[in-house]
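Much of our argument rests on the idea that a fold can be written as discrete symbols. In the encoding step, the backbone of a single protein was reduced to a row of integers, each denoting a local shape. We regard such an encoding as a compact summary of how the chain folds. The record that follows shows the chain in one-letter code together with its fold in token form:
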Amino acid sequence: MLFRFKKKSDIPSSEITPYRVYQQRREFLKTAAFAGAIAATAPSLLLPRSAQASAFGPNLTRGKFATDEEPTPYDAVTSYNNFYELGTGKDDPAENADKLITRPWTVTVDGEVHNPKQYDINDILKRFPMEERIYRLRCVEAWSMVVPWIGFELGALLKEVEPTGKAKYVAFETLFDPERMPGQTRNVLQWPYREGLRLDEAMHPLTILSVGLYDKMLPGQNGAPIRLVAPWKYGFKSIKSIVRITLTETMPQTSWNMANAGEYGFYSNVNPTVDHPRWSQSKERRIGDFLKRETLMFNGYDDEVSQLYAGMDLKKNY
């Protein structure tokens, strides 16, 4: 199976003003009065990147496709999260992350493959060369970040298991363990959390499995120990704390589509022309910014992924 993708030489940059993103649950700060809080809580992150110690050693490389936008501060990236398995409030995941024990941890890859495997997370960290990729993250609630993810292309793992000719989709499943994930004691979704991609989306070089961010191992609230990142899709598509990846012939069920198909489609590509039924998606607020900005088609990755959807009605296939 051969996939061809066109590449973009660079992505236009824009500036952000970093400061702490919230004061109380579900509230954004409306001014930049707390800019000094970032320096107090994460001073090492103000050093040049070359001067920061990395949990991934000196062989960590800068990956292709990275934006040159200024990353959102670590303090914000790790304290304002959507991760219902650890709580529905934006600050709940950080407060409950200590319950998410991530060793031992295995990821099973099965289904329509010639060579099914079970990977230990420690073997994954050694087996696949890690890259830093600074990607935009756009959430369906119209807020966004720029995150220095560390990981490797999902396609590299899928090639090892050798998809059969019947494989058309890739299904993902999060850990189900209410002791480690206290949010799963509430029936806000059907657990375990499920997501899916088309096989060509999964094989696209933009799609990575992340195991870290900001030169550090991935925190629990951000989906430790391993999560998907598909940066042209709304954030809920980038499933966290993965334990199973299954290649299928048919389109898999996904959690938010199961919960409310009228609001959350299978594709969930960032699209400013298709509004959520309860709010507009034409603008977004970058964490740390006071003013909103225009939402970019495919979250700014139009040149890289638009060919995946040639001929498709993106309002119907939302």
Summary: The helical segments are 36-41, 74-77, 92-96, 121-127, 154-161, 199-203, 255-259, 302-305. The first helix runs from residue 36 to 41. The domain at 36-309 is CATH 3.90.420.10 (Sulfite Oxidase; Chain A, domain 2). Confidence is low (pLDDT under 50) at residues 4-51.
